[in-house]
Specification:
By secondary structure, the chain is an alpha/beta fold. It is about 50% helix and about 10% strand. It is built from 26 helices and twelve strands. The strands form two sheets. A six-stranded parallel beta sheet has the order 2-1-3-4-5-6, with helices on both faces. α3 runs antiparallel to α4 and α4 packs parallel to α6. The longest helix is centred in the C-terminal third of the chain and has 19 residues. It starts with a helix and ends with a helix. The mean pLDDT is about 90.
């Protein structure tokens, strides 16, 4: 059958009204897989077949199976493209692709072939697509689980076992080790950031005023040269893989004067900024990178050249444990030193009088991400109100960003349905974003952490510092590990289920004196453990500042 004739026939028969019938779908499937059909036409028709089946209401598994079966009858490059498209379609629907591993392996195989024949551009293009697909936010951020968290080794095996993956992770090293801090002048510290500055504010203020430090603060997103460079992720991937590209030379030209000036570079967030720094030999300048949480579930640990980083700072032991499992560059002969230092937090503003009426108010501070799982907090509230309707829930923070993905929209829709049932009775109040968290906490008697994953959860610490009693979910992403919520916080703060959470809330709020005593103990522990006045010296030691 000629390709034009076949295309014309299949354009008509893949309409939803036709593929709704199983016999017709089997016929179309057979035509699309027919060996007489040119490979290009077969690929196009396979996509059309699946789209028609989806629109006709076929189960997702059957429509996927049809496409994958047809993909088996085309060449490896076309098959990789088909599977990548299938994965993209599934992600667009808010689901983790059932054939994610097959799609990743097919694309990596083609990338390896291109790399072997010297076609670096094609290899980098496919590698970039793999990283974008494998670490898409729908798979790891906008749902309540992640295949990376479930089994890091199995999830990353195709990437780390491929030729392009091995080349990507090959250390470049540095010409010379970092020099010790100067003793005859203030240490020059370059603070680099792209994105949220919330976690560096106290650090920046401390060292801007420190007599033994000369601080330079650079936000890459505000820089006219670095800003455009940091947004070119495809070129960044190509430089990390191929080396000595025009992009790498542009990064070198921008960063070299900063490196020549600085004794120490402190990069907050192990994202594109850290990748860019790792593309350049730092000379004898020391490089420190701090990794918070979400970076470990993205592509960044596979792009950062940790052989050019001297120290990596984590905010918790369980985050370090996990990141060491997903980032090969953090182990081995060229690995940097690793440290655990909690976030810099000024807790004094949270120590305010708390009204007695706050005792029955649960507070969830931070509700804009699916990972915060506010529906878990709603379930705790339902259990409490089944016996005592004085309990209420205050949600503080922006709504879930429904523009990020369909998965986020689906979660947000389910949450809205639950809140709509509770709001009329006054059981739930939504405050939205506020710049006065200490003021809001005066009305909260119990602070919740309902998240599926956290690295540290500053909101719980701030709530504890206010005298609210913490009730912390044993974050499922880390609950089976050696470290987790139970090693970040006192064990009696942590619960495994909504029922356990409700039981703890009842126990600590049944009597006002018990509630106040528990809140005072939490505030004392928070201040003594996590206040910046206690932990600033740890940062001084990290940076080598007397």
């Amino acid at each position: 059958m000629g390709s034009k004739l076949a295309a014309g026939v299949l354009r008509r028969v893949t309409a939803p009204r036709v593929v709704r019938h199983r016999a017709a779908a089997r016929l179309i499937h057979g035509l699309a897989a027919a060996p007489l059909l040119p490979a290009g036409a077969r690929s196009s028709l396979a996509r059309r077949l699946r789209a028609g089946m989806v629109r006709a209401g076929w189960p997702a598994a059957e429509s996927r199976a049809a496409l994958v079966a047809v993909a088996g009858g085309v060449g490896p490059a076309a098959r990789a493209d088909l599977l990548a498209q299938e994965a993209a379609d599934e992600i667009a629907e808010g689901r983790t692709p059932a054939h994610l591993t097959a799609a990743v392996e097919a694309d990596l195989a083609e990338a390896d072939r291109a790399y072997a024949r010297g076609d670096g551009e094609a290899a980098a293009r496919r590698l970039h697509r793999v990283l974008h697909t494998q670490f898409h936010r729908v798979i790891h951020f906008d749902q309540l689980d992640s295949p990376l968290a479930d089994d890091p080794a199995a999830f990353l095996a195709p990437l780390h076992g491929s030729a392009v993956g091995r080349a990507l992770l090959t250390p470049r090293g540095r010409r010379q080790p970092a020099a010790p801090p100067p003793t005859d002048r203030p240490q020059r510290v370059l603070l680099l950031l792209n994105g949220s500055a919330h976690f560096v504010q106290a650090i920046r203020e401390r060292y801007a005023a420190h007599p033994d430090v000369e601080l330079r603060y650079v936000r890459l997103d505000d820089d006219p040269v670095a800003g455009p460079l940091i947004r070119q992720s495809r070129r960044m991937t190509a430089e990390a893989l191929l080396r000595d590209t025009e992009y790498g030379r542009q990064v070198e030209a921008w960063l070299r004067p900063h490196l020549d000036w600085a004794d120490t570079v402190f990069v907050d967030w192990a994202v594109a900024t850290a990748v860019m720094v790792g593309l350049v030999d730092p000379g004898d300048t020391r490089v420190v990178v701090r990794l918070h949480s979400y970076e470990a579930f993205g592509r960044w640990p596979n792009l950062i050249d940790f052989s050019r980083v001297d120290d990596v700072v984590f905010v918790s032991e369980h985050l370090r444990d996990f990141t060491l499992r997903v980032a090969p560059g953090l182990t081995g002969a060229h690995a940097p030193r690793t440290h655990v230092l909690c976030n810099a937090m000024d807790l004094a503003p949270f120590a305010r009088p708390k009204d007695s009426a706050a005792r029955f108010t649960l507070g969830l501070v931070g509700t804009s991400a699916v990972a915060k799982d506010p529906r878990w907090a709603v379930e705790v509230l339902r259990l409490l109100r089944a016996a005592d309707e004085r309990y209420r829930l205050l949600l503080v923070g922006g709504s879930i960003d429904t523009g990020m993905s369909r998965a986020a929209r689906d979660y947000a829709a389910a949450l809205e349905t639950e809140l709509a049932e509770l709001a009329p009775s006054g059981a739930v109040t939504r405050l939205g974003h506020t710049d006065d968290v200490p003021g809001v906490l005066t009305g909260i008697g119990v602070v919740l952490s309902s998240s599926v994953r956290e690295s540290f959860h500053c909101a719980v610490v701030e709530g504890a510092a206010s005298g609210a009693v913490p009730v912390v979910r044993d974050w499922p992403f880390f609950a089976d590990g050696e470290h987790g919520a139970r090693t970040v916080f006192p064990a009696d703060w942590v619960v495994a289920t909504p029922a356990e959470a409700a039981a703890r809330v009842r126990a600590v709020t049944a009597d006002e004196q018990v509630w106040r005593a528990a809140g005072e103990a939490a505030a004392k522990h928070a201040s003594a453990t996590w206040d910046w006045s206690v932990n600033a010296a740890s940062f001084d030691r990290l940076l080598g500042i007397d």
